[in-house]
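Figure caption, in words: inputs first, then the predicted bound structure.
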Amino acid sequence: MEQSSIGMFDSGVGGLTVLKEVEKELPQENIIYLGDTKRFPYGSKSKESIIQLTQKGIEFLTSQNVKVIVIACGTATSQALEEKKKKYRIPIIGIIDGTVQYIKKKEDLRKIGVIATSGTIRSRGWEKKLKEQIPDIEVKSKACPLLAPMAEEGWTNNEIARLTIREYLKDMHDIDALILGCTHYPLFEPLIKEELKNKVEIIHTGKLISQQLKELLKGLGEESVEKKAGTQIYLTDRETNFIQVASVLMENREIAKKIEEVQI
Ligand code: DGL
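Bound structure (D-glutamic acid present):
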């Protein structure tokens, strides 16, 4: 098999917010996406469990001969990426580093809010990297454990979502930028923007990852020249809302045809 696809994984539908951006930025690339729907949510699990689950995801993707792996999950990036990166020869990137570099370059962004799952916030993964790279930065973090399950349910634009966002963001009105530190959260972007009255820059990690990935593939001389297989999605449990939410998010009613169940 050719080493031609980009491998990507998340606990569920959230990583598709990254996939969508990568498909836009790198339309010629083939992508293999793994959604570990059987074990969703990752956000409330221990660091040890996240390390094990990340290992499983990486093993599955390497068995598909991918050329690079994108951990399209904030929870796995913040708790397992550094450790796993050392173990494999294949490049593995997550959602934090590229975002931190973007903020570093934008000097008007020094008061930063981070919203993410409980596991990500507990790990202080964002805060540590931001402060390491930008000493004069101020970081406000907030765990939003209800948002990823609501996104999997397709509740991203109703009254319950609006009130939940309002409650979680009540201390985030005086910041320069808000990092959506969980890949499920861009699904709430319209409500988040509305709540923060368009005064705060909303940082969608998927857009930054797709640019980082482009540079990385160029540097490695691994860019695809033509799309052959397209996008293939594997789920560890097909009996979820994934297909419904994914078809709305990806604006593709035929998405079920790209989905297969896999046991890992
Ligand atoms: N999309 C994930 C993240 O970025 C995981 C959410 C979850 O499984 O709780 O953190």
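The chain has two domains: 6-94+207-261, 97-205.
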